[in-house]
Amino acid sequence: MLGTYGIIGWIIIGGLAGGLAKLIMPGRDPGGCIVTILLGIAGALVAGFLGNALGWYSEGQAGGFIAAVLGAILILFIYRLLMRRRR
Prior knowledge:
Elements: H1 6-24, H2 32-54, H3 62-86
C-alpha cells in the first residue's frame, strides 16, 4: 500500500495535502492546524490506496497528489459536519 514513498513519504504528502485542503476550504476547524494535517494524512492514505487499487494512476504520478488533496478535502468536510452536529 505504501509503495515507494514509505510511511514518511505519505506523512509528508499528507501534510501538504492537508495544508492545501485547509487553503481550499478556509474557516475555523474545531481541531486546529494539527488536526487538519492529520486529516490530510488520512486523506492521502485513503486516496492513495483507492487510486492504486482502482488503477486510476500508478505510484509516483501527479494524480496521486491530486487524489491526496481531494481525499483530504473530503475528510475535512466530513469532519466539519460531524463536529458541527456535536455542538
